Every structure is written in structure tokens, then in C-alpha cells.
Amino acid sequence: MSGSEKPAISGLKAAGIGCAAMVLLPVLFILGLIITYSAQRATPEDYPEVKPEAMARRLGGYSQDAYAALGIDRVLDPAGEGMREDDENSLSNDYCYPTGLESMADEPEEGAYKMRHSWTLQDVGKDQGLTAVRRLHAHLKDSAWRVTEYGRDDEYQEWRVSAERDGGYHVHVAWSARDQRLDGGASAPCAYDPDWPEAGSSSDLPDTGTPSPPLTPNPAA
User: Fold this and answer.
1) What is the Cα–Cα distance from 213 to 83, expressed in whole angstroms?
2) pLDDT for 170-214, tens place per residue?
3) What's the rounded Cα separation, in Å, for the pair 55 and 57?
């Protein structure tokens, strides 16, 4: 073989190796994604185990504490008497979805839930609504909560206050100038129901296990 032929042959080998690498890299990448996805699917999310009844009581306590700080003399008790027809007090669950590659499947995490307690007061005038928001802001600043939002939203004509605390719990209140309405509530992070049956389906949700907690004004307000 002449010296001029050797570089040509070496060049062909290098080109062949390069082509093989270009074909192999996508295959290895896809294989890595499949392995990572399978590993994540087999590993539960880092949610605490909390019974829905216990979570409902916890959210009810947070809501009651915030509601009492508003200084509005109105009871929100769905199971009692005296609650106005247009006012609302509801407790609800929603699905939890995994993060990472698992999110591509768009399937809820089996046995997991996130809970929210919401309430609404209709016919709340400006003076009463703004005073309530200011009172709650002052109360949250002096407690274990960290205020994350406070002030006016010009687009929605709302005055809001929101806060969070360790563990991912949130409380919020907003007064709407358009609707003369005060909305509020508390929300919890995702948790596993420790009593969730092994035969449960990801299309099901753990029941809240309790009616909506009543909210009462602060007697000293």
C-alpha cells in the first residue's frame, strides 16, 4: 500500500466511527431518559403522610385565625344558622402531579392530595374591606407567617394580602372593589393519605373526611 492510500483509508475509518457515534448518541440519550423516567416512577414523591381529617382541622385553624383577625362580625358556618345565602365556605381536594420527567405522563400521584379551604363574604363595603385587609396584614406580620404579597392590584381592582409558612401552607385574603366582595382561605401542600388502599386508583381522590370548618368573628373585635 502506498503512502498516499493510508491517509485515505484512515479518513474513511474516522468517518465511519463519526457516523456510528452520531447514530449511537441519540439512542443512548433516549435510553438514559427511559431509565431515569422508570426510576422516578418507582420512587414516591417527597410528600408527608397526613390524614385528610387532620389536614382539614389544620387548615380550619389557619383560616379561623386569619378570619378572626379581619374584625368582621359575620359567621360562616355551613352547618349552622345565620350564614347569608350568598356567602360561601367550602373545603376541597385536588390532584397532585409529580415533577421531573414523570410530569410528561400527566398522571396524578396515586394516594396524594392537596387541600384548600375557601370562603367568600358578599356585600363588603370599601371601608370595611380595606380595614379587614390591613388588620390581617398586621396580624400576619406579628405571627409565624411570612407575608408574600400586600397591596393593590390595579388590573383586578383588588387589595390583597398573602402569606406562607414552613411546610408550604398559605393564607390569603382579597377585597374586590368591583364586586364589593371579600375572598379568603388557606391551602396546604401535597400529602399522602396514609390510609389509601393499595387497590386505589390514581383517578380517585382521598375524601376530605370532614365538613367545611365554621368561621366565627373575633369576640373582641
Assistant:
1) 13
2) 999 999 999 999 999 999 999 999 988 865 555 577 777 788 999
3) 5
